[in-house]
Amino acid sequence: MATSIRLPEEIEHRLDFLAQKTGRTKAFYIREMIMDKIGEMEDYYLAADRMERVRKGKEKVLTAKEVRKGLGLGD
To answer: Which of 19, 21, 29, 68 is the most exposed place for a label (fewest CB within 10 A)?
Structure first.
């Protein structure tokens, strides 16, 4: 799947320099950067979305006691 992004000029130059000096493509480094950070970004943004839903009362929240009871652990 092709995706297009605009980069600040300084970042573009740094990426060009890195690719030129190492013989790899810019696409290689962009893929590496995305693959390295996507998990962190998913964790952060999905957690932030969930917290917003909790704050708005749109997400069910259980107490520790309710969770223990649901798991049959008692008090």
So the answer is: 21
Q: Per residue in 5-48, pLDDT tens?
A: 999 999 999 999 999 999 999 999 999 999 999 999 999 999 99
Measured distance CA(73)–CA(75) in Å, rounded: 7
Tell me the DSSP string of 5-23. Answer: ----HHHHHHHHHHHHHHT
> Phi, psi (5° rounding) for residue 32?
-60, -45
Which residue carries 């008090």 as its tokens? 75
Q: Can you give the length of the chain in residues?
A: 75
> ∠70-45-16 over CA atoms, to 5°?
145
Closest by CA to 30, choosing from 3, 48, 54, is 3
